[in-house]
Design goal:
Elements lengths: L10 E3 L5 E3 L3 H17 L10 H7 L1 E2 L2 H5 L3 H24 L5 E6 L6 H4 L6 E7 L1 H10 L9 E5 L18 E5 L8 H15 L10 E7 L1 H5 L5 H6 L12 H5 L6 E7 L11 H10 L9 E7 L1
Parallel strand pairs: 2-3, 4-5, 4-7, 5-6, 7-8
Antiparallel strand pairs: 1-2, 8-10, 9-10
This protein binds S-adenosylmethionine.
The site of S-adenosylmethionine has 20 residues, from helix 1.
Protein name: S-adenosyl-L-methionine-dependent methyltransferase
InterPro entries: Ppm1/Ppm2/Tcmp, SAM-dependent_MTases_sf, TcmP-like
GO molecular function: methyltransferase activity
Amino acid sequence: MGLEISPEPATAKSATNTIKVSLTGSEETALTMLYARALDSSQTNPILGDKWAPEIVSKLNYDFPSKTGVGCMVSAEIAARSGNLDGMTEGFLALHAGEPVTVVHLACGLDTRCLRVKHGPEVRWVDVDLPGVVHLRERVSPSCNVGGDYTLLAGSAADVGGWIDRIPADRPTLVIFEGLTMYLNETQGRHLFEGIVSRFGGKRGVEKQNQIICDALGSIIVRLQGWVHSVENSGALLDWAMDDPEMLCREWCDERLELVEHMLAVEMPGVERYPWAFRAAMAIGAWVPYVRSHSKLLRYRF
Ligand SMILES: C[S@@+](CC[C@H](N)C(=O)[O-])C[C@H]1O[C@@H](n2cnc3c(N)ncnc32)[C@H](O)[C@@H]1O
């Protein structure tokens, strides 16, 4: 394992000494998530309170408000989602307290989950993203080597063989990805899930010690993607909608995957702290088929 550097730097220093960003497509959407967390942090009573996000934003020359279109509602939803995914990660670590484990944070973007989720030297933490994001991350992220076993890898979720074999399969492993599944197509998604299960999973029937934690969209958002400002602006394509997260267990991964948590975004902890108009929209949405499952958090065991 080791650090890989983008052959095509997507950044350059600007006159103001901030770093000019020229990411496009799904890589650019990492900036939306970063800004959403920074905006949440600037609130008096933040939902996530990621103190590193504003620091990273301040290093970048990028018109965050107009390019991302993120306001307080989207910021609140992203903060709540990230907070819940942090909680699930902490749950995995608590389950294996004191044991050597691996956490693979795939499509990590500019997210500092590795800093928010406290962990010690028994945790091997691997962040993975596409080369352009990895290159930017190396330049602007605070050091994530808190536990002493940290690696940043460039690789594509659509090419599992390219990076997964570089991560030792010698311990219980959590693979977590936030904001990724929708940028893959279903075939790539299948290869990713099957690749993870076959690399890190034990034999069929052996106790399931490994987890995949991710979020997913319902097809309503994929159909309405023209309305999602940051997707439209970056030219990214939302493709894979997971309307039936159990399907993966029934039809993929040789039935070795088990869905153990399915949390709808309209009902997740944190919603109660949204601005009131957004809270009301969520409460109504929770009664409307398709809208109800427009976004979800999933935890699988294998
Ligand atoms: C919406 S952002 C989420 C970033 C990060 N998870 C966060 O929450 O801040 C989407 C991320 O997925 C990454 N991504 C998209 N396609 C990918 C692929 N095939 N392999 C690895 N990462 C990918 C992008 O580079 C980007 O960092």
